[in-house]
Amino acid sequence: MNTPTLLLDGLPVPFSVGQTIMEAATAAGIFIPHLCHHPDFKPQGSCKLCTVKANGRYVSACTMPAKDGMEVENNSPDLNDKRRTLLQMLFVEGNHFCPSCEKSGDCLLQALAYELEMLTAHFPQFYPDRPVDASHPEVLLDFNRCILCELCVRASREVDGKNVFALSGRGIGKHLIVNAESGRLADTGFSLADKAAHVCPVGVILAKRRGFLQPIGCRRYDRQPIGMQFASPPGSGGNGPEH
Amino acid sequence: MNPPVGQRKLRLATTSLAGCFGCHMSLLDIDERLFELLDRVDLDRSPLTDIKHCGPCDIGLIEGGICNAENIHVLREFRQQCKVLIAVGACAINGGLPAQRNHLDLGQCLQEVYLTAPGIVGGRIPDDPELPLPLNQVHPIHEIVRIDYFIPGCPPSGDAIWKFLTDLLDGRTPRLGHPLLHFD
């Protein structure tokens, strides 16, 4: 029996049954921009950055199962315009001040903004008031940068078995909370060894006393754009699909 | 190189609003290329010329965000006088460092700085009528007037500013790719 294959921007991409479009593309070394997707966790399709056109319809590449003969459009001006708009909305909803963020240069949100050549956030800034939580001895939580990807929620629940994080509220009032009566991270069983401490794609969950260990300008996405790192074959210095 | 006879030099104005002048330092960081730039443009209002008001210009570079009434006045004057207005740096583009006061109450900020901070004796909140009134929040400049181009960075490197300006002067659509496009 022939290997099922889809057409991604005109290129044949073979896949195994059960793989999503994102998984098929990743295995083929093709980059689909994404924020809430992580290969270690069940996809949830919330950020919509990975929106592609499959057989003429907009779908999330991280949740849509690949089908034989499916025609997928990924790297097109139309889709990249929409992705840039999504990024701009994420930038104005939080307080993303890159020059004062420890994660700058290692941040997925910023790397995608570079990749899609976002020069300005365009929309009026929300400047929300989101106090930080510095109560934990090892970890700082800066909610100003949260993009609600729920990777920490999923990692804490599925890997650490601790349920430290959750999202609360609806619409524009939706926000990340810590599962403790006091609402403080120090009053949970959270530890720097947890998987959830290392999955944040932006600068919300930061290990204390590690900042600027790697100088600005020498960090991951300073060295090479995210799209090129994705396309790098294994062992060539690019880190493939991991964040 | 001097422009061909009959082709006038372009006029360039620059200013700093709620910023730290770091973007102007980056402009100076284009080093000896400044001579090439000055062969192609004449400077109008700028901290480099100390001209107080902007005349009709082709290009305006604005560093810094909007934090007080005078910033708005200067920004509107630039928009009126400049054919092409460029926001330079993080403060102009998203408020930058000054905007990190936006979740604080302005009155409390002033009290703490001038009245209650440790070591202050007989302090007074400045109230000279010549001082521009501060706004409750700092804003990016595109929220006040239309902006044509944006050069991100804190500050953008001299190379980024040079690439952007020469693209524009040569009639190309300005473009910053890796590694010139930086938000920090």
Descriptors:
heterodimer; A: 243 residues; alpha+beta; five-stranded mixed β-sheet; two-stranded antiparallel sheet; 9 strands; 21% helix; globular; disordered C terminus; B: 184 residues; alpha/beta; five-stranded parallel β-sheet; two-stranded antiparallel ribbon; 6 helices; 20% strand
Give a structural overview.
The complex is a heterodimer of chains A (243) and B (184). Chain A is α+β, with helices and mostly antiparallel strands. Helix content of chain A is 21%, strand content 14%. Chain A has six helices and nine strands. Chain A has a five-stranded mixed beta sheet with strand order 2-1-5-3-4, with helices on one face. In chain A, strands 6-9 form a two-stranded antiparallel sheet. In chain A, a hairpin with a 2-residue loop joins strand 3 and strand 4. The two termini of chain A are 35 Å apart. By secondary structure, chain B is an alpha/beta fold. Helix content of chain B is 30%, strand content 20%. Chain B is built from six helices and seven strands, in the order E-H-H-E-E-E-H-E-H-H-E-E-H. Chain B has a five-stranded parallel beta sheet, sandwiched between helices. A two-stranded antiparallel sheet of chain B has the order 4-6. Chain B starts with 9 loop residues before the first strand and ends in a 15-residue tail after the last helix. In chain B, 39% of the residues are buried. At the A-B interface, helix 3 of A face helix 4 and strand 7 of B.
Shape of chain A: globular
Which stretches of chain B are low in confidence, meaning pLDDT under 50 for 5 or more residues running? none
What is the CA-atom radius of gyration of chain A, in angstroms?
A: 18 Å
Order of helices and strands of chain A: EEHEEEHHEHEEEHH
